[in-house]
């Protein structure tokens, strides 16, 4: 059970920390070989909007930085997006403390920065009606003319590289799609599209977690079955 004392909240996000005891997993029954999974902690963060105005993310990130190299991170994403700076902070903590040990669940929606955060995880799980949207960043500047120009150019290069490395290098958008995104095109994706592109690795359906490939096979089979049924109904109506 999750200890209530291990809850840390910001304005938009909540972190729960749970101690997971040592487990044995049977590998070979005849030879009595087991895999030992040592005790560790699960850090689960419920992600809302990236828009911390008061407390900031200090308590959440301070809790995450206490993780050991055996612990793992779960991101429960239901986010319309927000400030890129906050998303980059999550990227940094994943690189620092949870590298190759991050799972993301797209619990309903992940738009803008929420979509990028989902893509940062190693295992990416969606549901039947999950929804994701990529679009370009928004930013501004103020000051003297030269300062504004310099700041905008610098920020644009940095953010485009950040977006490119997460989305294009991992094959989630093509270079051509990315160029269109940067100049204003939005990309909306449902569960099927997320699986086809490899953005989603797993789907939770009917109480089970299946791979994205299994899900695509399942809906293809269902479509063929529906088409066959419709064709049979048409033939019967003709007779």
Description:
The protein has helices spanning 58-64, 84-97, 113-120, 145-167, 175-182, 191-197, 212-238; strands at 7-9, 14-20, 23-28, 33-37, 40-47, 72-79, 102-111, 123-127, 131-134, 187-189, 202-205, 208-211. The chain is an alpha/beta fold. The strands form two sheets. Strands 1, 2, 5, 6, 7, 8, 9, 10, 11 and 12 form a ten-stranded mixed β-sheet that branches. Strands 3-4 form a two-stranded antiparallel sheet. A hairpin with a 2-residue loop joins strand 11 and strand 12 (208-211). It starts with 6 loop residues before the first strand and ends with a helix. The model has no long low-confidence stretch (mean pLDDT 90).
Give the CATH topology. Answer: 2-enoyl-CoA Hydratase, Chain A, domain 1
- Poorly predicted runs of 5 or more residues: none
Counting DSSP H or I runs of 4 or more residues, the number of helices is 7
Give the class from helix and strand content and strand pairing: alpha/beta
Give the oligomer, counting copies of the same chain as homo and different chains as hetero: single chain
Proportion of beta-strand residues: 25-35%
Element pattern in H and E? EEEEEHEHEHEEHHEHEEH
| Domains (count) | 1
Give the mean pLDDT. Answer: 90
The top level CATH class name = Alpha Beta
For the record, give the distance between the C-alpha atoms at the N and C termini, rounded to a whole number: 62 Å
CATH-derived architecture: Alpha-Beta Complex
Cα radius of gyration in angstroms: 22 Å
The major β-sheet equals: 10 strands, mixed
**CATH superfamily label:** 2-enoyl-CoA Hydratase, Chain A, domain 1
Give helix % range: 25-40%
Per DSSP E runs of 2 or more residues, the count of β-strands stands at 12
General shape: flat
